[in-house]
Amino acid sequence: QAVGWFDQLLPVESPYRPYVVSDLLLVLSQQAHELIRQGRNPEAVYARAQSLYDEIMLTPDLLVNEQWGLLNNMAQIYWVELNHQFILNQDIRPLALRLGAFLSPADNQLIDDPHQLINLANTHLLMADYLYRQQLSNTEHLNLAEEYINQAIQINPTHPSILISQAQLMTLQGATTDHNYQAANDLFAQALAVFPEQPYHLQSWANSLLLQAQNPKDNQSDEALLRAQAVITKALTIDPGNPFFQHTQAAINAWQQS
């Protein structure tokens, strides 16, 4: 229904058209996500979003705040597509490189934007996770993620999404060093104390707990797995049928049975 409303607004000539397209890109990212939930193909939504973005970026003299909305909302389209490839166990490297380049162009005017910094950090964290699973070096991506997270923290040190990204980073770092995850888990708990019903934050913690179980310290694997199962169960209670959460739950179950 929301897409239909935007379809009526798009033909209207207006100086506010960049904002209309920006908001539509966000709605299209949600539509693509919903299609994935339903097991349907989101490719047509991706293509429409790309066409709208390419067209509106030809507008002369776009304001910085107009560019901000367009870039961050188009990034959400790319992020949905990237995550979908990840849960399908496909090679995410081409899409991750595309998103990284998109978020840090040579003429970037949004260098101090925490949303952009965390989008960049999360892209490198997903790449680091993917490479770790492939038993390939992920040091470069961990270092870049840490750099972007530190920049975001300087701007907003208490935002829950930034804390979640920092906790994911610390878990990935701990998996290849001292296997000490206490600080990471404390950060997850701190972020979830603000938004305890945020299911994607819960999923992030469940994924990190699974990684902790796979790379335990002092035989703490069983405890980490039990916590992971409890956390992802809560996420699925909030959003039943979510394929991303189901993927995490399946991975936890597979590890328990291995």
Describe this structure in words.
The longest helix has 24 residues, at 64-87. The chain contains twelve helices and no strands. It has 258 residues and is mainly α. The mean pLDDT is 92. It starts with a helix and ends with a helix. Helix 8 (160-175) runs parallel beside helix 10 (199-214). It has helices spanning 2-9, 17-37, 43-56, 64-87, 93-103, 114-133, 139-155, 160-175, 182-194, 199-214, 221-238, 243-257.
- Which bin fits the share of residues in helices? over 70%
Q: Which regions contain 5 or more consecutive residues with pLDDT less than 50?
A: none
Query: Overall pLDDT, averaged?
Result: 92
Roughly how many Å apart are the termini? 45 Å
Tell me the total number of β-strands: 0
**Class computed from helices, strands and strand pairing:** mainly alpha
Calculate Rg over CA atoms. 19 Å
Strand content: under 5%
What composes the largest sheet? none
Number of helices: 12
What is the H/E order? HHHHHHHHHHHH
General form: globular
Short description:
This protein is mainly α. The protein contains 12 helices and no strands.
Chain-wise SSE layout:
Layout (H helix, E strand, L loop, with lengths): L1 H8 L7 H21 L5 H14 L7 H24 L5 H11 L10 H20 L5 H17 L4 H16 L6 H13 L4 H16 L6 H18 L4 H15 L1
Helix pairs in contact: 1-2, 2-3, 2-4, 3-4, 4-5, 4-6, 5-6, 6-7, 6-8, 7-8, 8-9, 8-10, 9-10, 10-11, 10-12, 11-12
